[in-house]
Description:
The radius of gyration is 18 Å and the shape is elongated. The longest helix has 19 residues. It is built from four helices and six strands; from the N terminus they run βββαββααβα. A four-stranded antiparallel beta sheet has the order 4-5-3-6, covered by helices on one side. The chain has a two-stranded antiparallel ribbon with strand order 1-2. It has 140 residues and is of the alpha+beta class. α1 crosses α2.
Amino acid sequence: xxxxxxxxxxxxxxxxxxxxxxxxxxxxxxxxxxxxxxxxxxxxxxxxxxxxxxxxxxxxxxxxxxxxxxxxxxxxxxxxxxxxxxxxxxxxxxxxxxxxxxxxxxxxxxxxxxxxxxxxxxxxxxxxxxxxxxxxxxxx
Length: 140
């Protein structure tokens, strides 16, 4: 298990986040998509996120990343979406023209927490059997 540490926490938080452009418009062509991937990587480095996998399609974005516990899923989505929108509009004014409302991203998003080895069932078993002396102990 790849546990990460901050001064006050030991964690393994991974999120799969998906969102779409406003009106689900097909505005994320190859040039914009390639730039967005670099922008998302820059945001991840700036905030201490660890980018695992990302893909930018013409009408949606998938990002799978590890995040320190000080950031909620809503904060992660907000940072990725707001910073990337500002940069895309600055660098690709034609995208702003295609979106008459002046916003790049739709308000909503999908997020799911994911673990490499720890599934919901593993957690349920751990909690249920935590008094068992043979139970695995968390190391932190």
